[in-house]
Amino acid sequence: MGDRILLVEDDDPLGSQIVGHLRGAGFEPVWWREGRLLVAGDLPDVSLVVLDLMLPGTYGLDMLKALRTFSEVPVLILSARNDTLDKVRALKLGADDYMTKPFWPEELVERVRARLRRPTLQKEQAVVEVGPLRIDLQGHTVQVQGRPVELTRVEFELLAALARRPQEAVTRQWLVEHVLDPEREGTERTLDVHVSRLRRKLGPVKCVETVWGVGYRLVPGEDA
After folding, report:
1. Same domain, yes or no: 113 and 201
2. Is there a contact between 208 and 198 (Cβ–Cβ < 8 Å)?
3. Cα dihedral angle (194, 200, 201, 205), rounded to 10 degrees?
4. Is residue 122 part of a domain?
5. pTM to 2 decimal places
6. CA–CA separation, 76 vs 167, rounded Å?
7. What is the pLDDT of residues 105-144, one digit of tens each?
8. Where is coiled-coil annotated (predicted)?
9. What angle do CA 116, 118, 124 make, to 5 degrees?
10. How many domains in the chain?
């Protein structure tokens, strides 16, 4: 079998259908029928979590919030709720994708495959390359198309935080809490100023992308 996928879904017919499609696609599904308030050590060794929201036991977003305190495993939300505010809240809490019910199980399988193909930064990596950007996390140096770029400490830490999750949205709140000095400059408005300065220093290649209502993400970029 391939990657292990944790499915958290209380609807038996739907859950059985999803498990069958995941298994048919070569994955090894693990099925939980209720939400659990996870702590470190509770999560099985899985490559991705497919998470319903309206669950007995623990509400899906509460489960996601707890999960994100100790794990960066990708999470794909399944929900009958299609309100934009629900989607934004899920993304802010750390979800990687959001699908509304009803849906085609074949599409779910393809989204799982697509998410597992996305590059992620392994702990032992010291250099990250995204498009024309080359970021040396240990040497604290940055190059754009081979050209050195001088950044301040905050600008470098901001770029490094995005580089650790390439092509994924990182919330403004998380960046404020983990990059900025909370006693001196810990506001989202200050964060936006640093992003603006970072973009100017990176030049015409647009690598730092705004995810409206959520935050920012690092993408391969394109010439302006």
Report:
1. no
2. yes
3. 120
4. no
5. 0.56
6. 15
7. 888 998 898 888 765 444 445 788 888 899 988 788 899 9
8. none
9. 100
10. 2
Question: Which amino acid, 43?
Answer: L
Q: Rounded to whole angstroms, how far apart are CA atoms 114 and 167?
A: 12
Q: Do both 17 and 112 map to the same domain?
A: yes
Enclosing H/E stretch for 100: strand 97-100
Other beta carbons less than 10 A from residue 188's beta carbon: 13
Q: What residue numbers bound the domain in which 162 lies? A: 127-218
Rounded CA-CA distance 159/151 in Å is 10
Strands in 125-213 per DSSP E = 127-130, 133-136, 141-144, 147-149, 170-171, 208-211
CA distance 175 to 184: 14
User: Nearest to residue 83, comparing CAs of 74, 73, 91?
Assistant: 91
